[in-house]
DNA sequence: CGGCATCCAAATAGATACTG
DNA sequence: CAGTATCTATTTGGATGCCG
């Protein structure tokens, strides 16, 4: 992605190959529709299963359940079960989740500017013109 | 995600709500297994369909084809068809793709450190101990 | 409330064959 | 080479019911 032409073509190619594999690794761990969303919702203070399901719009209990398990296995969160009555179950972010701050920040900034771009594109194209040319923007 | 306690709880909650929606928007546009990978491969200089399919390991022609179409619709790339003989088809990154550099950089850095963490976890746990406790790491 | 099990529908993706 | 079409296999997800 970087484009400093001081570098040889070979160096540049190698750099991109490394990018390809490290980004693939990242996507493998935190890719998918939900993982980041759940972590953000938890950062917001939501700890209970039902709270999370309300926050993360569109997720079903079944999927939330399995995503939480994966997040736990991968060391992002812990599940805490109280011994009192009634038993309450809370999920908490582990420190490792905070290593994602940079990624979340970058995605958020890009998401904001992308949303703006889409809006500009739609209005500049005028209403009812090529309505089929701007997909994937909810 | 940020944790500056100068902010009121209300401000913090609002901040996280905004995060949730902007990250959702970003994931909606560039989420999924392939889009970022294809863009990175193209940054590496790959422009032809078959080249891309070789670079982006695991993608099928059918999926690559449809992903390229979406990337084109969303303004990340252009498809250029030469008029010569034989007809050659090349895909090129548009400037808008470069707005993703920050995201790609963050993901790449995180991917690298995550890979290291996984390796440490595996070796410190010792071989053949809880081999079922570290999933999702290819 | 916080799940898991089951069943079923829908979306996604691979394989293969075929075309300009 | 650069795809498309078709069929099928796999994955994914929703709905429901049950249980501690």
TrEMBL record, chains A, B:
InterPro entries, alphabetized: HTH_HxlR (IPR002577), WH-like_DNA-bd_sf (IPR036388), WH_DNA-bd_sf (IPR036390)
Single annotated GO MF: DNA binding
PROSITE patterns: HTH_HXLR
Swiss-Prot/TrEMBL keywords: DNA-binding, Transcription, Transcription regulation
Residue ranges annotated for the HTH hxlR-type domain, each copy included: 16-119
Name of the protein in question: DNA-binding transcriptional regulator, HxlR family
